[in-house]
Design goal:
Radius of gyration of chain A: 33 Å
CATH superfamily of one domain in chain A: TM1070-like
Oligomer: heterodimer
CATH architecture of one domain in chain A: Sandwich
Radius of gyration of chain B: 38 Å
Helix content of chain B: 40-55%
CATH class of one domain in chain A: Mainly Beta
Distance between the termini of chain A: 81 Å
Largest sheet of chain A: 8 strands, antiparallel
Shape of chain A: elongated
Helix content of chain A: under 10%
Number of helices of chain B: 37
Number of strands of chain A: 36
Number of strands of chain B: 19
Largest sheet of chain B: 10 strands, mixed
Shape of chain B: elongated
Structural class of chain B: alpha/beta
Structural class of chain A: mainly beta
Strand content of chain A: over 45%
Chain lengths: 461, 938
């Protein structure tokens, strides 16, 4: 019994924790714990990047413009094992005829009319071609469809006529917007937007009809819908003389450095056309890339190109001494992106030197038969190894130093040249006879297609 | 004027002594008394022989009509007085009957039947049959005899108990119909008498006390084997009598009986008396089975000499009875009986001898002033009105069609929702048989009631969210305070209601269009209120609460599926604690089974969805309603925000102060602990679910935690309200510097600040996404093309080559409310995915044919359109340019048009079965949820 009589008190264990208190402490504690363990918020938006993959190119189109001089040479710079197929058709018609072209080989197509070529399979990568004329050398490359093309050195006027040809290789209509700059500035108020070319058709546009009497022009063709192959033919002659014709190849887009390779040793006239499509004035300096180094020619002042204008500079005297002794290329450096084109008269023949984009990787072009074709390469800021392959079997590897130009003569019976450059180079095939000269730029061999990653939209919008 | 009394007895030993005494005590004694015992198993025959002599008693096993026919040849008097073994005549009965019958020249006279044993309630004063076969006495149930029916009247028939009938009339009418052995032979007899031109009068001055043994089912006979089948046999007798005796309109009458049977059965089902409903049909079928016999009898009967329509009830009487039933039911639903809290209050008041408190109803005002004056002088009414107007103004964006955030646009008509809910195959995406979400069916019903417009239904949901949440919280808090603490502090309850009403809007669910959470927040307090009924003492009320709770949980689960998980855990915890602490109470089936029923009902009511989800992906149980929305972080969860835009978080955290402070007060600790256990459970479930990523066929989805946010807020509010009961400072005895007063004041201030900031944010600053419908890039003419069939779809391609391309198919006017979940469960069609991949890289005519076969007519690249893809599609043969309002949007039309039913499909057979079962389940549960009727019919 208890010690104190009369007192009945339950002996309680004061240290025992009552369950209510335990839960009163435990419940908020468990809540806190659960909150600490909880994962962070999730917006449930998918922000991952899905990188595209590359697939081999399996389809290519080429447009060879009409001409009454010369036939078309088509070559395949592809190394694919698949045989592929090549068909040709005349614009406006739908009958396609097969062209028996081998992978890595070349073929001649005799057709004075323009031809739309379509390659499938193994023949699609590296399809290249040009219309080659003789005896006076002329070369007009077959144009591949592209989004933006620059033609610097066109004209519309009595002594300088340019014709723009747009070809639509696809089934549906394509739409192009043409912008023209002249020495007075960008030409507004011309009906050059939304030019529609139906599927499989070719449209020829004389720049004179768009912008009459504007002598020196730079033209930019932007394809806003569909695909179009653009090519320009230029006719130029001094007052009183006959007009001479040459292709005006598409040049590089405006940049701070423009490279115009393949200057001939002699030329009776050289005129540089510069266009500044930007909004601030450009200060342009010229340099020559010779065999050993790049140097500035003496007597050439800095050229100022106002915003939105074309500036034409006569470089005949300034370049005469420098180009005579070796193969050279013209380097145009500017403070603001400009596009350049050089128009030369060689032995009475008109020759256009386009600015070529410096590229690494595979480049190719067909090689004319007439004259002594030479491959002229110019390296940019970095030098490197370049492997030159001719379809007649020869292959050489050259080391190209930075800022230098190298000329490689073409072997006999070579119809196709392919370059594999480790360093960025600009290259042309130049052929020259006593009657004139012609230039064919080497274009990049497109072997792959960027295929975007496709997935169903989640979460749906 | 001689009278023979015929006494028919069957197992009537209980009442016979009194009857015989009454017979012996008549002022006008009958000249002869004959009795027949029809096969009794007790000692009625002996009693009869004792009282009347052996030669007056016959014994034969037969029915009542046969008994009368057996005795009739032995009757030689002018009049026959028929008595039952449970009909005790008053001393003056026979005298009055005779006198009145001869005075009025009636062939049949019946007494006033009064109830035996109570002796003063009226039973019958003549009886008639309505056109639907209902036995009409013209009296109310349990009417006291105060002399209101004391006129002598001519009637169609009188009960055979105490009937005085001329012997030749009895003979000419061939006695009672043997086809009606126990019930209804009186009306049939009276009707035939009326047809024959004989007059039947009721004599109110003659009183007979009748125990109604047969009707009450107390009398057992071979016929009425089971006690409860009297209803059926009475009905059969009534139908027989009607069909046999109707002079005109036999066929229309038969049809009317058919329709009437269905209606009556429906009425019995609503009253939760399925047995009676079954009886109605059984009686009808039996009668139809005996139709040849009925027709034969009709031919047998002599042609009617006089018309009886004046003696039968007017034609509108059955409709009046129907109306009465409906209003009865409606008023029962409206009144609902008193809820548990008020009953307890009343019981307590009764126990303490206090006057019963009037039910506190804020809408009930004093009766002696005018309505308008009352309204304007009541601060509560004015405050509620001001709050309502402010609420409507704050929700003004919901007055038009709303879409945005998690809310897809509403479909054009309620029929679209019905199709979505009831069809097994949906023409969405590439056609799918995934189940529609559970909330589509209730929304379809609401939309149908609201002028058939889903837009109105959605707008109404968003407009009434805050007031209904507040009202529900108010009712629940009052009830739970009363039940738990025995008092209700109105101010604190008002604070609780306002704090909870702020939850749907301050959490950001309203502004983000997360209608599932909004609907859950509105329904939760109503559900909680119903669940308090599970703790009632009466088993019937517990079951009622279980069915209603199950139905509400089904609705909650339809909108936020995690509600079912929380309920599952809650029931498990409750039963676990119950089995630990009070095993013998909880082990009774009437205690734990209702809790389990609450969990099972949602599964039954959402049957196609539940089964379909298991067929497709059980993880879809976690899908939150509507489009994908951000999930809350831990800080959001505890401050009552659902992630994404919402009121400032610090305002939500303020609610933790009264919630935690509620734990301190010892008096209310136990109920507050229950609330905090709920908070802890919800937090644990949220923590678990937040780490789960559900991989649905369409893509990864995070489970919806919105319901847990609402539950936590509700539990905190409830804890604070419970703890604050009775905490008002008394005017005397407390210094204002008392630290408890200061702390309490601070807590109150903090508690008020939180909801005020939340509601203020919503009303004045609240940004919401409800007026931003998802991108309508698709041109109108493409949408209209879908009018000819959902197979005319638009393939919408977005993105660019570097970040990836996404595609989706737009059908009709796009994804509407309820279709997001179906598409989430479906997943993209593999064939179409491959086709789109090929389309993007190189479009060939074969690919375009595949697209046409998959039901695509247009390809659309909204801005910013990927140039590469656009160029590729431009190059394709078989695509023509199509126009789009935005010049930078590219569109193409496939040259071959898709078939209108390109994505149509067959409803799977099992879906129809499930839908039928679901609708039946809904019907059954709806009936079981009905209000408790005052009396159940025997």
């Amino acid at each position: 019994m208890n010690d104190f009589p009369g007192r009945r008190v339950a002996l309680s264990n004061a240290r025992k924790v009552r369950p209510a208190t335990a839960i009163a402490v435990g419940a908020p504690a468990i809540t806190l714990l659960a909150l600490l363990v909880q994962a962070p918020a999730d917006t449930q938006h998918d922000t991952a990047r899905y990188e595209p993959t590359t697939h081999a190119l399996t389809s290519a189109d080429l447009f060879c413009p009409a001409s009454d001089r010369g036939s078309i040479r088509i070559a395949s710079a592809s190394t694919s094992t698949d045989a592929g197929s090549l068909t040709q058709r005349r614009p406006g018609t739908s009958t396609r005829t097969a062209v028996p072209l081998q992978v890595g080989g070349s073929r001649t197509i005799d057709s004075p009319e323009g031809v739309l070529l379509h390659a499938e399979g193994g023949l699609a990568p590296g399809l290249t071609g040009a219309r080659l004329g003789e005896p006076r050398p002329s070369a007009r490359e077959c144009a591949a469809p592209g989004g933006v093309r620059w033609f610097v050195g066109a004209g519309s006027g009595a002594s300088h006529l340019s014709t723009l040809t747009l070809a639509n290789p696809d089934g549906g209509p394509a739409v192009a917007d043409i912008t023209i700059w002249s020495t007075d500035g960008e030409l507004q108020d011309i009906e050059s937007r939304g030019l529609t070319i139906s599927g499989g058709k070719v449209s020829t546009l004389a720049l004179e009809s768009l912008a009459p009497d504007a002598h020196e022009l730079a033209v930019r063709v932007v394809v806003s819908r569909g695909r179009l192959a653009a090519s320009v033919r230029d006719e130029f002659g001094k007052v009183g003389e006959a007009l001479r014709t040459d292709a005006l190849p598409a040049g590089a887009s405006p940049s701070l450095v423009q490279v115009l390779p393949g200057l001939t040793r002699k030329a009776s006239s050289r005129v540089l056309t510069l266009v500044n499509p930007g909004h601030s004035e450009a200060q342009v300096t010229l340099a020559i890339a010779g065999g050993r180094s790049t140097f500035a020619p003496s007597g050439v002042a800095e050229i100022r190109v106002p915003a939105g204008r074309v500036v034409v500079t006569d470089l005949t005297k300034a370049l005469a001494k420098v180009t005579g002794s070796e193969d050279t290329s013209l380097i145009v450096r500017s403070t603001v992106p400009v596009a350049a084109g050089l128009r030369a008269t060689v032995a009475g023949d008109l020759v256009h030197h386009p600015a070529i984009q410096l590229r690494t990787g595979l480049l190719s072009s067909v090689v004319p038969d007439v004259g002594a074709p030479t491959l002229v390469l110019t390296a940019g800021e970095t030098g490197g190894k370049v492997t030159v392959r001719w379809d007649s079997g020869q292959e050489t590897t050259v080391q190209l130093n930075a800022g230098t130009t190298l000329a490689v003569p073409a072997p006999k019976h070579a119809h196709l040249v392919t370059l594999d450059a480790d360093a960025p180079v600009a290259a042309v095939v130049r052929t020259q006879t006593k009657d004139g000269a012609a230039l064919l730029p080497l274009r990049a061999v497109a072997t792959e297609l960027l295929v975007p990653a496709v997935r169903p939209a989640w979460p749906p919008r | 004027m001689t009278v023979t009394a015929l006494l028919v007895s069957h197992d009537g030993a209980r009442w016979l002594p009194a009857v015989l005494e009454g017979l012996a005590g008549q002022t006008r004694q009958p000249d002869h008394v004959l009795a027949i015992d029809t096969g009794s198993s007790d000692d009625s025959a002996d009693l009869l022989r004792e009282a009347l002599g052996a030669d007056a008693v016959r014994e034969e096993e037969c029915s009542f009509p046969e008994a009368i026919a057996r005795l009739l040849p032995e009757v030689t008097t002018e009049w026959v007085w028929i008595l039952h073994d449970d009909a005790n005549p008053a001393p003056t009965a026979l005298a009055e009957l005779l006198a009145t019958a001869t005075r009025h020249d009636a062939a049949i006279a019946g007494p006033k039947l009064r109830e035996w044993p109570s002796l003063s309630r009226l039973l019958e004063l003549g009886v008639s049959l309505s056109a639907t076969g209902r036995r009409e006495t013209g009296l109310e149930r349990g009417e006291y005899d105060q002399g209101q029916h004391d006129k002598v009247r001519e009637v169609l028939a009188v009960n055979t108990a105490g009937m005085l009938v001329r012997r030749d009339a009895l003979e000419s009418l061939d006695g009672f119909d043997r086809h009606l052995p126990l019930y209804g032979n009186d009306i049939d007899f009276g009707w035939r008498a009326a047809r024959a031109g004989l007059r039947t009068v009721v004599v109110p001055s003659a009183v007979v006390f009748h125990a109604e043994a047969a009707h009450r089912g107390v009398r057992r006979s071979a016929l009425s084997g089971r006690r409860t089948r009297t209803h059926r046999y009475e009905r059969e007798a009534a139908l027989y009598t009607l069909l046999v005796n109707r002079e005109k309109w036999f066929l229309p009458g038969l049809l009317r009986l058919l329709v009437g049977t269905v209606l009556r059965a429906l009425g019995y089902l609503l009253a939760r008396q399925p047995g009676h409903a079954g009886d109605e049909f059984a009686a009808l079928l039996n009668t139809l089975g005996h139709l040849p016999a009925i027709l034969r009898r009709r031919r047998q009967l002599p042609a009617a000499v006089a018309t009886t329509s004046g003696l039968r009830p007017p034609w509108w009487l059955p409709y009046r009875h129907g109306l009465d039933t409906v209003t009865d039911f409606a008023s029962a639903v409206a009144l609902q009986g008193r809820d548990a809290a008020e009953r307890r209050r009343a019981a307590r008041a009764e126990r303490l001898g206090l006057p019963a408190p009037a039910p506190v109803d804020e809408d009930e005002l004093a009766d002696d002033t005018g309505l308008v004056a009352r309204y304007f002088t009541s601060p509560l009414a004015l405050a509620i009105t001001a709050a309502a107007i402010l609420g409507l103004w704050a929700a003004r964006v919901a007055f038009g069609p709303i879409a945005g955030g998690a809310l897809s646009p509403a479909p054009a008509a309620a029929g679209d929702w019905w199709h979505l809910a009831l069809d097994g195959w949906h023409q969405l995406g590439q056609g799918t048989d995934a189940p529609a979400p559970g909330y589509v069916l209730p929304l379809a019903l609401v939309a149908t009631l609201l002028f058939g417009s889903p837009t109105v239904a959605v707008s109404v949901l968003f407009l009434i969210a805050v007031p209904f949440a507040g009202w529900g919280a108010w009712r629940f808090l009052r009830a739970v305070c009363e039940l738990v603490t025995g008092r209700v502090d109105t101010t604190v309850a008002v604070w609780g209601a306002i704090a909870y009403a702020a939850v749907p809007v301050a959490s950001g669910a309203w502004g983000q269009g997360r209608f599932g959470i909004v609907a859950s927040a509105v329904l939760l307090p109503w559900f909680a209120h119903v669940v308090t009924g599970l703790f009632e003492t009466s088993a019937d009320r517990r079951w009622r609460a279980a069915w209603r709770g199950g139905a509400m949980l089904a609705l909650l689960t339809a909108f936020t599926p995690s509600a079912w998980l929380v309920a599952l855990l809650g029931v498990a915890v409750l039963l676990g604690l119950g089995f630990l602490l009070a095993r013998d109470v909880v082990a009774s089936r009437d205690v734990w089974l209702p809790l389990v029923v609450v969990l099972l009902v949602p599964a039954a009511l959402m049957l196609p969805g539940a089964v379909g989800m298991i067929g497709h992906d059980p993880a879809a149980l976690f899908l939150e309603a509507g489009r994908l929305s951000p999930t809350p972080a831990a800080i959001d969860l505890i401050s009552g925000r659902v992630g994404g835009l919402g009121a400032p978080i610090w305002a939500g955290l303020l609610l933790l102060v009264p919630g935690l402070a509620a734990l301190v007060r010892a008096r209310t600790r136990v109920p507050v602990l229950a609330c905090w256990i709920l908070v802890a459970v919800a937090a644990v479930v949220a923590a678990i679910l937040s780490h789960v990523t559900v991989s649905l066929p369409a893509g990864p989805v995070r489970p919806g935690l919105g319901f847990l946010v609402v539950v936590i807020q509700g539990a905190l509010v409830c804890a604070a309200v419970l703890a604050a009961q009775g905490l008002r400072p008394k005017r005397t005895g407390v210094h204002s510097q008392d630290w408890r007063f200061v702390v309490g004041g601070l807590i109150a201030l903090v508690a008020v600040l939180g909801p005020v900031v939340g509601l203020g944010w919503w009303a004045f600053d609240g940004d919401n996404e409800l007026d931003r419908p998802p991108g309508t890039d698709v041109p109108a003419y493409m949408v209209q093309a879908a009018d000819e069939g959902r197979g005319h779809g638009v393939l919408v391609i977005r993105g660019d080559a570097h970040k990836g391309i996404t595609w989706e198919v737009h059908r009709g006017s796009g994804i509407t409310l309820g279709e997001d979940e179906v598409l989430a469960l479906t997943g993209p069609d593999q064939r179409l995915d491959r086709a789109v991949r090929s389309l993007v890289s190189r479009a060939t005519p074969q690919i375009l044919d595949t697209l046409t076969a998959e039901g695509i007519d247009y390809v659309l690249l909204p801005t910013p359109a990927s140039a590469q893809v656009a160029a590729g599609l431009d190059a394709a043969d078989g695509l023509t340019q199509a126009s789009a309002p935005d010049p930078r949007t590219r569109a193409w039309q496939l040259e071959k048009s898709a078939a209108g039913d390109a994505v149509a499909g067959q409803d799977p057979w099992w879906h129809r079965v499930l839908v039928t079962l679901q609708l039946l389940a809904i019907l059954v549960v709806a009936v079981l949820c009905g209000p408790t009727r005052q009396e159940e019919d025997a």
